[in-house]
Amino acid sequence: MRLLLLFLCGALTAASARRTFGIDYENNCFLKDGQPYRYISGTIHYFRVPAKYWEDRLLKMRALGCNAVQTYIMWLWHEPIQGHYSFSGSVNITRFLTIANRLGLDVILRIGPYSDAEQDMGGFPAWTLKERGIQFRTSDPRYTQLVKTWWDKLLPMIKPFLYTNGGPVIMVQVENEYGWWNPIDKNYTSWLLSVLSLFSGNLAQSHFGDGIVYFTTDPAQPALVKGGHIEGAYASVDFGSGLDEKAVGDSFKIQRIVSPRGPLINSEFYPGWFTEWGEKYVYTPASAVIKTMNAMYALNASFNIYLVHGGTNFGYAAGAEHIGDQPFHTVTTSYDWSAPIREDGHTIGKFFEMQQAIHALTGKPIRPLPPPIIRQAYGSIEMRYYGTVFDHLKELTLDKPVHSRYPLTAEDVDHYYGFLLYEVKLPKDAKITINATDAINDRGDFFLNRRIKLLSTQRAQSQQTVFVIDRAHYDLDENQPLLLSILVENQGRICYTPRLSDYKGIVQNITANGKALEKWTIYRISFTDIIRKLEEAPEELQLRVRESENDLTSMTKFIPSLFVGEFDTKGRTVGDTWIDTTDWGKGQMFTGKAFGLGRYWPSKGPQLTLYHPMVQAGKNQLVFFELDKPGNCFGKKCYAQSVLNPLWIQ
Ligand SMILES: *[C@@H]1O[C@H](CO)[C@@H](O)[C@H](O)[C@H]1NC(C)=O
Ligand SMILES: *[C@@H]1O[C@H](CO)[C@@H](O)[C@H](O)[C@H]1NC(C)=O
Ligand SMILES: *[C@@H]1O[C@H](CO)[C@@H](O)[C@H](O)[C@H]1NC(C)=O
Ligand SMILES: *[C@@H]1O[C@H](CO)[C@@H](O)[C@H](O)[C@H]1NC(C)=O
Ligand SMILES: *[C@@H]1O[C@H](CO)[C@@H](O)[C@H](O)[C@H]1NC(C)=O
C-alpha cells in the first residue's frame, strides 16, 4: 500500500491541475492537488438535524474555522424496510453533500456499514435481525450479502461526490472502531475495503477508485488500533479534551504503531460527551477543548471535532448501551453533546472561544455567522386528557393485530420501533403465578382486563419478574375471563459492544403456573392515524373518553394515555421552541403532523425539555403518550410549557 500511495503522491505533484488527494508519507501530511493539506473538521449528523437547517449549521461550522465536515451515513434511515430505500427529505444525503460542496467544505464520509453514533443498533436496520443467528460485523455470508446489496445501492450515489470527480469527498472511513469488536475478523474488514477500493480488490467490484484516502478509526489504545487496522487503509485514532501536550503526543504514538508515517489524525476529538437517561449532563469547558486542540495543531495533526453540532434523536432513533455488567441505558433524545453549536443551532460562548482559538492557530479570516434562528416561548400549554391506550386501540393499531400461538418479537412482526401491545387469556386457576423473567425488552406495563394496572417492569441486568394474580383479590370467580395485556416499550437497541442482536417486544415465553401462555394477540402501536384524527375530528375521540372515564381518577390509575394540547404563534414571529416536560412521568411526544419529537423522561432526567423545530404559523397541536403520570396538574388541568432554552436537571 505504501508503494502505491507514494506513487500516487508523485503523480499528484506532477499533474497538479488534476483534482487529486492522497498521503505524503515523506512529509507526514496530506496532499491535495499536489499541495500540503491538513484539516480541522467538524462532525454534523445530517440525520439528527432538520434538513431546513443543514445549510445554517454548515455555515456556522465554517464560521468556527472548520474546512471540512465529517458525517456517518446511517444505513437504518436509508433502508428502513428491506429493499425499500429512502434518500429524500431529512435523509437526502446527496443534498447534504451538495450544500457542503457549495460552501467549500471538504467531506469525510464514514460509510459504515456499522456506525454506532449512539443510534438504534449502531445504524444497522432492525430488519437485519429477522435472519436469526446472523453474525454482524463478520464474514458471515448472511451478513455480507446484506451489506453488498446496500452498498450496491449507495455507492453509485456517492461516486459523483468524490473529490476526483469534482465533489467534496476526500476521505472514506471503513467500519467504525472495529478494534473494539470481538471476535476480530480481518477477512471481513479487508472484504469491505475491497468492495470500496482498487487498493486491495478486483477492478470489476470497485465502486470508487484511487484519489481518495480510505481510513480506519480506533481509540488510542494499542490493541484497539491494531485490531481495527485494515491492510490498505490508513489508521487514525480518537481521543478527547483535557489532554496536555504530553498526553496528546502519547496518543499519537499509538497511531504510529500502525501508521509509522503519514499525517497524524484524531478522527473523533471530543469537546463533550453524550448523555443517557439517569445520568448527569456534563458540560466540558472550552479551556479543556482548546488545550488539546492547540497541542494537536502543534504536532501538525489533522483533527475532527466530534461533534461541532450534535442535534436530536427524534422519534425512536436513540440507541442504548448495555456494557459489561452495567445496566441497560438509553441515550437521551437530546444529542447536544456539550457541542459548541447547541442542539437548537444557538452558538454558545464555547463556540466563540473555540473560534478565536482556531483563528489564532490557522490565521485564516473569521467568516460571518448566518442570521440567528428565531426561538420563541409560547408559554403554558394545557394538555387535555384524551383517553387510554385501550380507549383508542382501534386507531392506534397499525394494519390488523397479529395472532400467534407464542409471543413474537417486534422484528418478527415487522414493527421495528416504538410500542407493541400483547394480549392473552389467563387460565381458570384461582391463583395464577405469572413468570415473565427476562421476557420483556425493554419496559412492560401489565394490565388485568384492560382496567387494572398490575405492575410496570424496566429492563435491568437481571430481571426477575414473577407475580401472583389472585382472583379472590379482585372478586372474580373462575368462570370470569381474565385478560392479561402487556404494553411493551422498545427503548432503543444496543448500539455498541458485541450485544448488537437486541430483539424487542416479548422475547421469551411467559408462563402462567409453569405453562407457557398461548394464543396471543399482538397490536402494533402507531400514533399516525390517531394524530390525524385528533386534527380532523377531535370531538369524536373526546366523546369516547367522556363515555369512559374522563377525569383525573382514571388518569391517576396510570394507564398509558394520550394528552393533547395546543399553542398559537398568534402575534409573534414564528420560531422554534423547547417543550418543558417537568413533573410529567415518561412518554413519547409528537407534533400535530405526527412528527416524533422524541422520548421524554423527566422523572429520570437529566433532560427536561424537548427541542421543537417544527412550529408552524397559527395553531400547533402537541400530543403526549404518557406512561406514568400527567404533570403540572392543578385541579383537573395539566400543563406543559413552551420555553426559550433547554433545561437539564443539575
Ligand atoms: C435530493 O435533493 C436534491 C436537491 O434538492 C433533489 O434534486 C433530489 O431530487 C433529492 N433527492 C430525493 C431522492 O428526493
Ligand atoms: C479468513 O480467510 C482465510 C482464507 O480464506 C481462512 O483460512 C480463515 O479461516 C478466515 N478467517 C476467518 C476468521 O473467517
Ligand atoms: C510541521 O510541519 C512543518 C512544515 O512542514 C515542519 O517544519 C515541522 O517540523 C512540523 N512539525 C512537527 C512537530 O512535525
Ligand atoms: C421464572 O423463569 C425463569 C426463566 O425461565 C427461571 O429461571 C425462574 O426460575 C422462574 N422463576 C420461578 C419463580 O418460577
Ligand atoms: C415457547 O415455548 C414453545 C413450546 O415449548 C417453544 O416451541 C417456543 O420455541 C418457545 N418460544 C421461545 C421464544 O422461547
From TrEMBL:
<feature type="signal peptide">
    <location>
        <begin position="1"/>
        <end position="17"/>
    </location>
</feature>
<dbReference type="GO" id="GO:0004565">
    <property type="term" value="F:beta-galactosidase activity"/>
</dbReference>
<dbReference type="InterPro" id="IPR008979">
    <property type="entry name" value="Galactose-bd-like_sf"/>
</dbReference>
<dbReference type="InterPro" id="IPR019801">
    <property type="entry name" value="Glyco_hydro_35_CS"/>
</dbReference>
<dbReference type="Pfam" id="PF21317">
    <property type="entry name" value="BetaGal_ABD_1"/>
</dbReference>
<keyword id="KW-0732">Signal</keyword>
<dbReference type="InterPro" id="IPR031330">
    <property type="entry name" value="Gly_Hdrlase_35_cat"/>
</dbReference>
<feature type="domain" description="Glycoside hydrolase 35 catalytic">
    <location>
        <begin position="30"/>
        <end position="360"/>
    </location>
</feature>
<keyword id="KW-0326">Glycosidase</keyword>
<dbReference type="InterPro" id="IPR017853">
    <property type="entry name" value="GH"/>
</dbReference>
<dbReference type="Pfam" id="PF21467">
    <property type="entry name" value="BetaGal_gal-bd"/>
</dbReference>
<feature type="active site" description="Proton donor">
    <location>
        <position position="177"/>
    </location>
</feature>
<keyword id="KW-0325">Glycoprotein</keyword>
<feature type="domain" description="Beta-galactosidase galactose-binding">
    <location>
        <begin position="560"/>
        <end position="615"/>
    </location>
</feature>
<feature type="active site" description="Nucleophile">
    <location>
        <position position="268"/>
    </location>
</feature>
<dbReference type="Pfam" id="PF01301">
    <property type="entry name" value="Glyco_hydro_35"/>
</dbReference>
<keyword id="KW-0378">Hydrolase</keyword>
<dbReference type="InterPro" id="IPR048913">
    <property type="entry name" value="BetaGal_gal-bd"/>
</dbReference>
<feature type="domain" description="Beta-galactosidase 1-like first all-beta">
    <location>
        <begin position="407"/>
        <end position="525"/>
    </location>
</feature>
<comment type="similarity">
    <text>Belongs to the glycosyl hydrolase 35 family.</text>
</comment>
<dbReference type="InterPro" id="IPR048912">
    <property type="entry name" value="BetaGal1-like_ABD1"/>
</dbReference>
<dbReference type="InterPro" id="IPR001944">
    <property type="entry name" value="Glycoside_Hdrlase_35"/>
</dbReference>
<dbReference type="InterPro" id="IPR026283">
    <property type="entry name" value="B-gal_1-like"/>
</dbReference>
<dbReference type="GO" id="GO:0005975">
    <property type="term" value="P:carbohydrate metabolic process"/>
</dbReference>
<protein>
    <recommendedName>
        <fullName>Beta-galactosidase</fullName>
        <ecNumber>3.2.1.23</ecNumber>
    </recommendedName>
</protein>
